[in-house]
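Database export, one record per block. Field names are fixed; values are copied verbatim from the stored entry.
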Amino acid sequence: MVPTLLGITLLVFAAARAAPGDAALAAAGNDPGLDLEARAAFFRAEHLYDEPLWKQYLHFLGPFDLSPRGHRAFGGSGAHPWHGLLAFDLGTEFARPGVSVADEIVRRLGVTVPLTLASILLAYAIAVPIGVLSAVRRGSIGERAAALFLFGLHSVPAFWLGLMLVLLFGAAGLAWLPAVGLHDKDADALPPLAHAWDTARHAILPVATLALPSLAYLSRQVRGAMVEALESEFVRAARAKGVPERSVVVRHALRSSLLPLVTLAGSILPALIGGSIVVETVFAIPGMGRYAYEGILSRDLNVILATTMLSAALTLAGILLADLAYAVVDPRIRHG
């Protein structure tokens, strides 16, 4: 994981620096009270844009701050000696120099994590029973109709699904549910229960938009694993011994079908933290996905690098946790 993550830092940094446009001029345009060129020159010096790329990369990686106010060992003033990923210092936003990127990420995670966790739990809670029933009743008209519906649902783009839900249930349609943000403008004045209900109503459409495409994919994976398990020899042996069909399906076939779900669970962690750029933008939710999108629009390299590296690190962590979970689910892997 360590060399892989190091390689990712190099690729992400190179891609960010190779993007067209001038981040210094974009940042300088946020302060109309100063001369544009003077502000851009100060910005380049502060963020080492006039230095060689290798020095900029080491500044980004850390743990030493190589800027003019950085570590004394590298010619800085010593005012801010530590910086970069290794120092857990992600810098500040370009447009808002007083806002720490790390602090803003923590604040945004408080929005993204509950929203995405609810969608994941909903998707698994519905997908597993559908997959099991599809495997048990494979070949029937109902199973084929469900398969057709799930394939269609899986092919629907998230942005289109979100917009359709907004048009159907939002103010322009049935007006049953709010479609913007996570709270009404006067939600802070509501009592606790009313505030929680307001949040739940605002979260229904985003959670549904996140869960429905995942639900379709998960259910098909469960079905495939269950079909294979139901045709295995140990299931035939259990039936020959007179074990009730319900126990055969739940206690034998389903338990042996958990490995595909463990593999898919490895991707939950980055999704849980990274959020969805499309869904959070469509519903104007101030989460991690929208934060990354805003960073791209404003050419804020600190935000772009921080959110991208966080997603990369969590992806690797998810793969590692999935590998460890294999040994828990299947003792044969542990013994091997």
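Remark 1: The domain at 102-335 is CATH 1.10.3720.10 (MetI-like fold).
Remark 2: The chain is about 70% helix and 0% strand.
End of record.
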